[in-house]
Design brief:
Elements (H helix, E strand, L loop, with lengths): L4 H7 L3 H19 L9 H9 L12 H12 L8 H14 L3 H27 L2 H12 L5 H5 L4 H22 L4 H14 L11 H8 L6 H5 L2 H23 L5 H6 L1 H15 L8 E2 L3 H5 L3 H20 L4 H23 L2 E2 L5 H22 L1 H28 L3 H10 L4 H13 L3 H15 L9 H17 L5 H24 L4 H13 L3 H14 L4 H13 L3 H14 L4 H16 L3 H14 L4 H13 L3
Helix pairs in contact: 1-6, 2-6, 2-7, 2-20, 4-5, 5-6, 6-7, 6-9, 6-19, 7-19, 7-20, 9-10, 9-11, 10-13, 11-18, 15-17, 15-18, 17-18, 18-19, 19-20, 21-22, 22-23, 23-24, 24-25, 24-26, 25-26, 26-27, 26-28, 27-28, 28-29, 29-30, 29-31, 30-32
Length: 633
Amino acid sequence: MPETSSEAAEAGPPRRALVGATLVSLLAPLLVYWPTPGDYWIRFDNEILIRQEPMVRALALAGAARGRALVEMFTSVHNDLYQPLLTLSLAIDYALFGWDRSGFHLHSLLLHLAIAAGLFWLAYRLVGVVWASLLATLLFALHPLAVEPVSWVIHRTLLVTAAWVLVGSHAYLGYARRPERWPWLALATAAYGLSCMAKVIPSIALIPFLLDAWLRRPPSARLVLEKLPLLLVAGGFTLLNLRVGQLKASGAEPDLWGSVTSGGTAGGFALSLVNTVMPQRLALFYPTADVWSIVGARWLVLAVTLAGLLALGLWLWRRGARGLLLGCLGWLALVAPFVLAANAFRDVATADRYSYVAMLVLAPGVADALAALARAAPTARRLALATGWALVLVLGLQARAQARLWSDEASLWRAALAGGSHPVAYGALGTVYSRRQQWPQAVEAYERAVELIEGPYASQAMPLFYTTLTQIALGAAAAAPKNTPEGSALRDRYLESASRAASRAAERWPDVAELHYQVARVDHRRGEDGQAIEALERALRLDRSHAPALEALGGIFELRGEYARAAPLYLRWVALRPRDARAHERFLSVALAGLEQRDRQAVGPWVERYLERFPDSEPSRRLRERLAAAGPG
C-alpha cells in the first residue's frame, strides 16, 4: 500500500523546514507585488463602487453616526450586491489612509500574503510533504491571475472571500479528522458563510464534500446533514444577491438556462482554464464575442492539458492519491458561477481574477500529485522539483511584468483592448487621455466607443458615451492651435465630431434634457446662436430645473444685450441653487446692465423678486445702492 498523507504527516518534518517554507510563501509574493501599482483610481468600478460609495466612509464618522452607518452596511446592498465584508474592508482603509492608494494596496497585499501562508499549511495538512506543498503554494501565490485581485482595489472582495474560505477549510479539516470536535464544524460553517458576505460563490458549499472525499470519510446521511446549515446559508446569500442585485440592475429575469447552453459559456470555461495553465493576453475583461479568438491556438494546450490531467488524475487515484482529480473538480465548481453569471448578466466573459478563489482548491491537488509522483519513482522527485521551480520562476516573472503594467492606467486599458474591442474600455481610455489633456487620443477613443455601441454593442448604448464624446471634442477644439490653418482644420474637425455625437444622442433619446443642452453647447461654439437657443428651450421644456441650460440660455441673451430675457433665467438658476455665488453674480450683472440702460420696466420686476427672496445678500445691497442712486422712475 502506498504511504498515505496522514501517515506522512505523522512522521513530521523538522520544524525549521516548516518555518522556512512559510517564510518563503510570504516573501516570494511580497517581491512581486510590493510596489503600489500607480496612484490613480481606475475609472471602471473603482470610482463608482468605492470613491462614490458613502458607506466606505462609515468608520471615519464620529459617535452615533458611525454605529448607524455600520448597521446600514450590514442591512443594505453595496451597488446592488450584498457584500458587507468588502465594504467593511474598504471602510477600514479609508479610516486609516483616506484616499491614499498605497494604503489600500498594502491591505490587499497583506491579505494575499496571509492567504499564501494559510494555503501552504492547508496543503501540508492534507499532503504531509513540505516541498510539494510549498511548490503548489508558490504556483498559486505568484500566478499572474493573482495580479488583478491584489492590484485592483474593488476586487478585494476575492481576497476577503479567499481568506474566510481558508479559515473554514482549516476548521473543517480539524472536524473531519476528529468528528467529536463539533465546535470546529460550527466554526467552519460560520467561516464559509462569512466568505459569502464578501463574494457569493454558491459552490463554496461543495468544498467540505471534497475534503470528505480526500479523507475517505464513508458516505452517510450524516455527511449531508452536518452541512445542511452551510447549504442553506450559501443558497440564501445567492438568492439574496440575485434578487436585490443583478435583477435590480438588469430589470429582467436573467436567462440562466440560456447561459448554461450558450457557446459563450464554453468559451468562458476555456479561457479561464487556458489562462490558468498558460497565462497570456490577460485583461480586465474579455468581450464574449472575442473569447475564442483570444484563446487562439492555445486550444491545443487546453485539449492536451485536459486529457493529461484526466489521465494522470485517474492513475493517481488508483494509487490512492485523490487530490488532483478533486482539486480539478473543485476548480471547475468554483469557476462555474462566474462564467454563468458573465453570460447571464453581461456581455463580457469571466475575467481572469475569478480563478483566484478556485486555485485555492486546485493547489493542494497539485501538491498531492507532486508528492505521489515522487513516492512512485525516486527520480521523479528531482524532476518534479526542477520543473516546479522553473514554473515558479516563469510565473513569477510574468506576474511581476503584469503588476508593473498597472502602474500606468493608459497602458492598462490598451492591454485590455488588445484582448478585444469593447466600448467601456475605449471610454475609460478616452477618459484617461482627457485627464492628461491628450485631446486627439481622447476624441479618437470615444469615437471608437460610440462606433461600437452603434454596432455590435447596441445593448450597451447609453447617453453617457455621447455626452462625454461631445465634451471631450469641445475640449479638443478649444485646445487647437489658434490663428493657423492646421489649428482651424483641427477645430472644425473636433466641432463636427461634437455636433455629430450630440445630434445623434438627441435623436435617439429625445426626452433627455441634457442631450439637447449638449447640442446647444456645440451650436453656440459654432456661432449658431439661433439653433442653440432653440435647443436650450427644448431642454428647459423637458426639465425646467436644468441649471446648466438656464445658465447657458441666459448667457446667450446677456451676450446679445437682451438683459430682460436673461434676468428671469438667471433668477430661476439662483432659486435652484441659492448657495451658488456665481449664479448670484450673473443675475447681478444682467440686472445692473439692464438698469444702466434705463430698462427698469423690463428688468425691474425680476430685481424686485430677487430683493424679496434674498434681502440680505451682497448682490441685494448693491442693487439697492444702484436703485437709490438712480432715484425714482
